[in-house]
Structure formats: C-alpha cells, structure tokens
Amino acid sequence: MNLPASVPKSDQPASIALIGFMRYPWWSAFFGILSMALFRIPLWTNKRIVFWRLMGSGKNGSFSMIPDIRQWSILVVMQEESVRNLIDINTPNKLINNSLGKFISTWNSLFKTQIHAFLLEPMEGHGAWNGRQPFGNLDRKAASWEGPVAVLTRATIRYSVLKAFWQNVDAVARQMATADGFITSYGVGEMPLLKQATFSIWKSKQAMINFAYSLPMHKEVIRKTRLEKWYSEDMYVRFRILKAWNKPEIEEVVNNYKVDYQ
What we know:
By secondary structure, the chain is an alpha+beta fold. 31% of the residues lie in helices and 34% in strands.
C-alpha cells in the first residue's frame, strides 16, 4: 500500500498529519479538561509522533472567545511510513488506538466521546508554530489537486491588538459558514484569546481560494493583519484529506476522489 506522493519537496522525510476532535457528553465534560494534562504523557513517549498539540475548542467553528468545554482536539504529525496502516482502519476508536496509543483510546471509550478525525497530507503553506515547521518545508503554492481541501490557520495574537482582532473575526466566521464550497470548520486553540486556530474543510481548493481572496470583508481583514501586525507568529497550511472518520458528509466527498492504495 503506497500513500500518494507529496507535492511539496523537502529534505525532511514526508509527514502525515492526524487531527481528532473529541466531544464529551455533558456528564463527562470535566474529564475532557483533565485529558489535556494526562494525554501529554502518552503523546510525549510515542516514538512515531514527531510533533503534537493538545487544544481546546471554540463555540462557533472558528476563532472564538467562548470556549466549548465539551470538545477538545489532538493534532499529531508522524512520518509517512508510520501511518500506512491507518488508511484501512474504519472505526475512530481503533484509529486512536493504532496511532495515539491504548491509554487515549481507552479513555475515549470510557467517557463515551464522539470522535471526528481526519488523516491529512500537507500540500502547501507557510509560517511557523512556536518556532517550528512541523509539516516540513512546504512550498507556498503546490501543483493543483482534485478533491476536498483542509486548511489550518493558526496565529499567536499580539496583546496590543487583541481588541482589534476580536472585533473583526466574528463577521468573517459568519461569512465563511455561508460561502460556496464550505463544508465545516472547527475553532481550536492552545491558549484562550492569544493562541488560536481554525481548521476548515472545503469541497475544492478553488472554493477555498474564492472565499479567501474574493470576498471584500475577508480581504480587508487580511490587509489589516499585515498592516497592523496583529500576529507575532502565524501559520497557514493546506492539506489533501486522505481519509475522514465519523463525518459522513466529508467521507462522501473524500471517497469521490479516493486514491487507489496498493
């Protein structure tokens, strides 16, 4: 079984990302908070993982000041050879067990979490995450590819512009939710207010580009981030979705462009 060849060229080994969103029932929400401390140990000791982040979620599917204490997320990056068997896994719990380890999968089973997960191939992007480039040295623009696109937009917001930032993001989030080709999005973050990210999924790269660069409101926000230097660090990465779990509307789109793995 061979994963499709990555478009970006790098002197680092090819990497694959896995992001999972875990939603706890109301009665076990406290254990979601606790997991953000306990999961550090199995992730830190997992030799297959070269980069990981534990993150909370916002309420509105984008940058948000209002936390959702029932939903938490894990992002890991692994070398390509470590994840070849994940393509064939059909259940989220088995996926977590095979990639993140038995402790995390048992925890999710015990507290009845609903898991949405996505296996991703980094295609293009720029920026850094806490001074690192976890997805390798990506080209800013890669060759075009068909099928759905996942986008990770992550930023560390400067204290001095917090008010300006939060005054602008809600309107953009509402506009994104109604944009042509938009499927879904998740607001995540490492630190309330300051370290925020949006993970969004689109039917095609062109649909995402149309939203990012054609709508006046979004273009104006992009202009302000540069002119007023809203971020002390930022990262923008586009991914090809190799597989989705527990999201039928996305699985259907992904399957329409399913690559034959051998």
